[in-house]
């Protein structure tokens, strides 16, 4: 091993003579990253993270990595480039400090990659180490998110970015399901380039093990950290695009099992060979089962914060009791209950290092530039998410900068980043912050406050987020000049508390209320005593020209996919199969019309009620109902639909209805606010009393049997959609509201 000090080198690294130009060196000079003739010693230099990059002779790959680092949203890091080729000519032979990146270079020559990595990490000055290869590209928010994950978790030894970056987590002889810790990442996801280390934990376990197979070095390091009671934290997001990431080989899997037999003891040999995972737990002892049940209960009750247990053991124990044992006497005595998302006020805690994360300085923008922060609970297949996506996609980026914060975790075992719609949002903005993915609940408000301050946010938009509403008093007190706007979608009068009711509690902190329909505007005035001048009606919109345009789609594709003949009319429902959509009404109507072989009901989508609907369809033996998975190209299905059917219990201004109207498909829907705002009964569709199943069947039969009525309604649907629900027009209205709100608060 030879480690050459950059300040004493007599040759250009990687074969570049002192005066020879290179693509990387030219890029660094042109971007201001290299200040010629500037040197500094390591003494007194402080940074929170070090990005260690292994140069492998490919200047284009190294250039891609550096460009990704220049785009980072924080500047609290240095870059240490090592290897045989950096291509930075004269300046690469000594420490330099540029305006954008803090760069250092060292030359190593070794046939042992692991030994070289150890030397590079030892030379790092930061508390946290990103160990990359040239060509690995970090997303702009990657370093910032990892810093927050470390800074708010003092016992976090490593952070694993186990998103959907193409890693084959099914490899490694079944290691993908074997997790480090109960909530940690799967062993198979821990690969080089996607793991970030706390240097103190790395030192404590004795660095990378040189004797380990190359593909399990990082997994081995994390397992040794776990044995020392360090936690390994996963961030389920594609924050790094690795060029060298590979699944763990069978040989590596065998090596890990030999060195950590107790860790893998509970997995049988059948499980190792890839048989059903249920066999992995057949050897559990009774007390292991009991411990698992207690842990599952604690997680379900939201009692997984060790800090809370240590500080308030009695309170935590009382909250642990099942709610069914807590009657009115429990409340009268003031005994603690589990947190209620509708009532819980988020704490504003200081970080252990007093929010020391520094951010990239903002360039002073031209007059009229507006920065907007959206706070939304999650990303699912729903109309509210489509509204946010439309704003991000069509807003004027020369006048607006957008940020999106997600405050709630994904549903079930699938984090929201793995949702099919996530790439759509990521394509519109690289400033998406899913707080549960990288930060503990207690620091969510701290992060939002830090984000508003560091990004100089002008307008805060709250949409459906209970956390966002509860945080408004503290945000308003801290940032009186930030305009606050909320977006109201629909009322749920049958629920004990809905988002509109919650929002009304905080209306004194809100500058402008945006509603999606006239009925919601009237409701705000009549029921919630809002003043009309503070309300703006902005309908939902879709792309009626390039996406939902019937002239762009030929019929037959969807019909062939689901196996429906040409002579059969398709009655389509699409969207979330949830209780408020009343999918069982569709089953009832299909049962009433089962003697019509010329009609088939197609339910397209996912949701909590889908298993129950499928079971009911099977129980009744309905052959005229087809269950279809959700799909992104809804317009293809609409091109084959005769009508759409939505027996909803409530709606805001339904995006599904606007999409159907844009494609010229008539609607049969419940006569409730939202649908009544969207269509005129007898013109674009038919409105039916929510409880009248026979009336639904009769309305559907009218559109199936009367071609003239259907043609007239189809033309009316397309005309109204183009006139009132073009997304470009609705987003222009949003721009006006955002600019006016920001201007009013600045004055």
Attribute tags:
747 residues; Spore Coat Polysaccharide Biosynthesis Protein SpsA, Chain A; Rossmann fold; 9-stranded mixed beta sheet; 36% helix; globular
What does this structure look like?
With 747 residues, the chain is of the alpha/beta class. The chain has three domains: 2-272, Alpha-Beta Complex (Spore Coat Polysaccharide Biosynthesis Protein SpsA, Chain A); 370-537, Rossmann fold (3-Layer(aba) Sandwich); 550-725, Rossmann fold (3-Layer(aba) Sandwich). 36% of the residues lie in helices and 15% in strands. Strands 1, 2, 3, 4, 5, 6, 8, 9 and 10 form a nine-stranded mixed beta sheet that branches. A seven-stranded parallel beta sheet has the order 14-13-12-15-16-17-18, sandwiched between helices. It has a six-stranded parallel beta sheet with strand order 21-20-19-22-23-24, with helices on both faces. Helix 22 (583-592) packs parallel to helix 23 (610-620) and helix 22 (583-592) packs across helix 27. The longest helix has 20 residues, at 727-746. The radius of gyration is 29 Å and the shape is globular. The N and C termini lie far apart (64 Å).
Indicate the topology.
Blueprint lengths: L1 E3 L18 H8 L18 E7 L3 H12 L6 E7 L12 E2 L4 E8 L3 H11 L4 E6 L3 E2 L3 H10 L4 E5 L10 H4 L20 E4 H6 L12 H11 L3 E4 L5 E2 L8 H10 L9 H4 L13 H15 L5 H6 L1 H8 L7 H5 L37 E7 L6 H12 L5 E7 L15 H5 L5 E3 H4 L5 H12 L3 E5 L2 H13 L4 E6 L10 H7 L6 E4 L2 H9 L8 E3 L19 H6 L6 E6 L8 H10 L6 E6 L5 H11 L4 E4 L5 H5 L4 E4 L8 H8 L4 E4 L4 H4 L6 E4 L4 H13 L1 H18 L2 H20 L1
Helix pairs in contact: 22-23, 22-27, 25-28
């Amino acid at each position: 091993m030879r480690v050459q000090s950059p300040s004493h080198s007599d040759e250009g690294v990687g074969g570049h003579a002192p005066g020879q130009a290179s693509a990387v060196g030219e890029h660094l000079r042109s971007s201001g990253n290299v200040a010629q003739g500037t040197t500094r010693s390591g003494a007194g230099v402080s940074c929170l993270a070090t990005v260690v990059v292994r140069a492998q002779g490919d200047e284009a790959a190294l250039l891609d990595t550096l460009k990704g680092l220049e785009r980072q949203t924080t500047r609290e890091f240095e870059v240490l480039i090592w290897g045989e080729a950096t291509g930075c000519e004269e300046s690469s032979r000594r420490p330099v400090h540029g305006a954008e990146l803090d760069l250092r270079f060292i030359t190593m020559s070794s046939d042992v990659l692991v030994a070289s990595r150890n030397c590079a990490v030892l030379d790092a000055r930061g508390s946290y180490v990103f160990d990359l290869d040239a060509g690995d590209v970090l997303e702009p928010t990657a370093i910032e998110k990892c810093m927050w994950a470390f800074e708010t978790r003092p016992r976090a030894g490593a952070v694993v970015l186990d998103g959907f970056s193409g890693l084959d987590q099914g490899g490694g002889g079944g290691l993908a399901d074997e997790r480090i810790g109960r909530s940690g990442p799967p062993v198979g996801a821990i690969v080089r380039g996607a793991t970030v280390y706390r240097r103190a934990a790395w030192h404590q376990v004795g660095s990378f093990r040189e004797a380990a197979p190359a593909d399990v070095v990082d997994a081995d390091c994390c397992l040794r950290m776990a044995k020392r009671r360090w936690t390994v934290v996963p961030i389920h997001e594609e924050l790094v695009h690795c060029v060298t990431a590979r699944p763990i080989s069978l040989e590596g899997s065998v090596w890990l099992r030999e060195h950590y037999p107790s860790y893998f003891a509970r997995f049988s040999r059948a499980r190792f060979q890839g048989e059903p995972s249920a066999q992995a737990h057949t050897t559990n002892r009774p007390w292991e089962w009991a411990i698992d049940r207690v842990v599952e209960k604690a997680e379900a009750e939201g009692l997984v914060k060790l800090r809370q247990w240590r500080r308030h053991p009695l309170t935590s124990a009382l909250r642990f009791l099942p709610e069914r044992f807590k009657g009115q006497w429990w409340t009268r005595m003031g005994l603690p209950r589990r947190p209620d998302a509708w009532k819980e006020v988020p704490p504003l805690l200081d970080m252990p290092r007093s929010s020391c994360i520094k951010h990239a300085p903002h360039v002073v923008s031209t007059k009229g530039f507006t920065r907007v922060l959206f706070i939304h609970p999650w990303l699912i297949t729903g109309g509210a998410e489509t509204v946010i996506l439309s704003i991000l996609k069509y807003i004027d980026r020369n006048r607006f900068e957008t940020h999106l914060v997600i405050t709630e975790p994904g549903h079930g075992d699938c984090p929201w980043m793995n949702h099919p719609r996530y790439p759509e949002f990521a394509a519109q903005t690289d400033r998406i912050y899913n707080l549960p993915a990288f930060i503990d609940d207690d620091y969510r408000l701290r992060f939002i406050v830090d984000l508003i301050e560091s990004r100089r946010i002008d307008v805060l938009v709250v949409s459906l987020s209970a956390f966002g509403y509860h945080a408004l008093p503290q945000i308003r007190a801290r940032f009186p000049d930030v305009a606050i706007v909320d977006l109201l979608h629909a009322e749920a009068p049958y629920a004990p508390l809905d988002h509109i009711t919650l929002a009304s509690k905080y209306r004194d902190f809100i500058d402008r209320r945006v509603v999606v329909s006239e009925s919601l505007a009237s409701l705000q005035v009549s029921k919630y005593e809002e003043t009309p001048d503070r309300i703006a009606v902005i309908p939902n919109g879709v792309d009626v020209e390039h996406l939902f345009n019937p002239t762009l789609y030929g019929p037959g594709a969807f019909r062939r996919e689901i196996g429906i003949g040409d002579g059969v009319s398709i009655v389509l429902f699409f969207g979330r199969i949830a209780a408020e959509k009343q999918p069982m009404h569709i089953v009832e109507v299909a049962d009433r019309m089962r003697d019509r072989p010329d009609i088939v009901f197609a339910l397209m989508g996912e949701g909590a009620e889908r298993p129950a609907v499928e079971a009911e369809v099977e129980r009744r033996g309905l052959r005229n109902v087809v269950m279809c998975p959700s799909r992104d190209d809804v317009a293809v299905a609409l091109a084959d639909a005769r009508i759409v059917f939505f027996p909803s219990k409530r709606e805001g201004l339904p995006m599904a209805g606007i999409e159907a109207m844009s494609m010229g498909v008539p609607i049969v829907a419940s006569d409730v606010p939202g649908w009544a705002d969207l269509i005129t009964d007898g013109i674009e569709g038919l409105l039916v009393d929510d409880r009248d199943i026979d009336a639904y069947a009769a309305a559907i039969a009218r559109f199936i049997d009367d071609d003239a009525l259907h043609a007239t309604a189809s033309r009316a649907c397309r005309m109204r959609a183009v006139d009132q629900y073009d997304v470009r027009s609705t987003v222009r209205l949003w721009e006006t509201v955002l600019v006016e709100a920001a201007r009013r608060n600045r004055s």
